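pipeline/complex-builder :: batch 7 item 3
reading input block
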Amino acid sequence: MSVKHIFLALLTVEDLHGYDLKQRYDSLLLHESELNFGQVYSTLNRLERDGFIALLGNPESEKKVYTITPLGRGELTHWLVSPGKESMVLYDELSYKLAAMDILSQKEFFQILQAYKKQLVKEMQLLTKKKLTLPQGHLGAKLLLDRGILKLEADISWTEKCLELLEKEGDAVC
Amino acid sequence: MLSLNHIEKSYRGTGGKVEALKGVDLEVSKGEFLAIMGKSGCGKSTVLNILGCMDGYDSGTYLIEEKDTKTLDRKGKALLRRQKFGFVFQAFHLLPELTVFQNAALPLAYKKLPKSKWRAVVLPLLERLDLAHLENRRPCELSGGEQQRTAIARSLANDPEVLLADEPTGNLDSENSERVMELLAGLRLAGRKTLVLVTHDVKIASYADRVVEMRDGRIV
């Protein structure tokens, strides 16, 4: 997870201390739960160690304000333009579940897929609700939620296809 | 608030008897936003028509606030339909010769509210649906999204307790669909209406608090 790169991006806008970084990070809705402080400070320590950020003012002061260094800007740009590894994930956990389901009877397979579809619809409801309550101007978070919704839509229509196929396959499911 | 108990309904088609509903049980609570999702032909529109007293059923019971709808005659049903329900359809069914304002005010004309009182009812609705600036336009001068929003304004003019929507975004592009759904969800979020929507599109259904799916005349 690229928490460190989001921190670098936030620091290109203004110099911030740890608490501000955490709050702004959380408002981007990148995780279901909020970032914990332990992760915030360990990320900041690593970024400082690598020379991507620097402390402003007195290092002994209680409120440590960080600024991004030219090296940090270079790292951020490099990360942004590098292709990710997630583009074509075919063999995820679901692949293993499918293999397990296939070992069961068709009837069980059908019921499990139906329950799985319901779960996906619930997740989509959750993301849609988040989108509806998103404050104005959070374009990044909106686009992220849209992406999640589209991915779920694809999985739901795939599940629907499986169910139709199983229905056609025989009376076992009825 | 609305309670369907083991509702069955069949039609006589050219190929013989078609069982549209095979024992549907469904409870809709007051203030709830419910989506009924399913492919075309699964019976979801039939359920909506029965809920809105626009269609009958062969067996089972349908209670509205614990009153059995079987005890209502045609007149009673028509009155209930007018007072309790608002309808939004995929095809907007606007009258082409009337303006946005006049279309939205139609239910007020039907219940013979004096014209002098229309503005006070309709204008706030047009404002809420971002249509006030278009009040003098005719449907042919509007986009699909604006036409559907006009139809929603019309469905709300009577201040119905329950809004029934059948594929309300079926004729809209994704941007306008989102806008219409945000408005409909907003009605529910404001705790003002009970909303039942049928759709084949899971993205649209996901705006609801509760989603039920129909397959082959049954809720699964």
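note: The interface with chain A takes residues 37, 182, 185, 189, 202-203, 205-209, 211, 213, 220 of chain B (CB under 8 Å).
queue -> next item
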